[in-house]
């Protein structure tokens, strides 16, 4: 009897431990949120924050196809590091996110002119993100066909002594999330 109760106790503890290991991910929005619903009914919802090192960090990225339940497709996305190298060798490479940082005061303040067809979003009292929806004649896909329709874009720019780096997340109505760096 003593061994049965010990075995039963171990099974209960193992079950509780496994339940905790497979718990639902944290859905807390650390930052600001916005969403986009396309004419087709497809919807994106996400949070964003301006972090000193990473810059714009997207989190809790969720997609809902028309007439389907919403699902989380990505927990968090940010640029981890971008090296700026110059061909003449006169400048030491600069690792932007670890040495200079993508975010904080390094993000360029956007004006209404910079975001003429979109909506400006502010962090720390400055407009740093422009949310736009644009028509696209051909949205590249990873198949031989191009998708036609709209895409939702969230660009931000980072200024430095060497260059201005633009980066964005492009969200399509067909559940594509394309991080981009230019």
From TrEMBL:
The keyword Transmembrane does not apply. Residues 1-23 form the signal peptide. One of its GO terms (molecular function) is quinone binding. One of its GO terms (biological process) is amine metabolic process. Keywords: Signal. This is Uncharacterized protein. It comes from Thiothrix lacustris.
């Amino acid at each position: 009897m003593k061994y049965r109760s010990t075995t039963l106790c171990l099974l209960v503890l193992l079950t509780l431990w496994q339940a905790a290991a497979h718990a639902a991910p944290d859905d807390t929005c650390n930052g600001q949120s916005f969403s986009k619903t396309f004419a087709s009914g497809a919807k994106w919802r996400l949070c964003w924050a301006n972090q000193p090192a990473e810059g714009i960090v997207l989190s809790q990225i969720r997609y809902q196809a028309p007439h389907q339940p919403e699902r989380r497709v990505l927990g968090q996305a940010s640029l981890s590091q971008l090296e700026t190298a110059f061909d003449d060798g006169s400048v030491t490479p600069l690792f932007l996110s670890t040495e200079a940082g993508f975010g904080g005061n390094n993000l360029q303040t956007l004006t209404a002119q910079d975001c003429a067809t979109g909506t400006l979003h502010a962090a720390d009292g400055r407009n740093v993100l422009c949310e736009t929806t644009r028509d696209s004649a051909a949205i590249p896909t990873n198949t031989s066909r191009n998708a036609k329709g709209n895409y939702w874009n969230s660009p931000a720019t980072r200024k430095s002594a060497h260059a201005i780096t633009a980066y964005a997340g492009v969200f399509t109505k067909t559940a594509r999330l394309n991080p981009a760096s230019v």
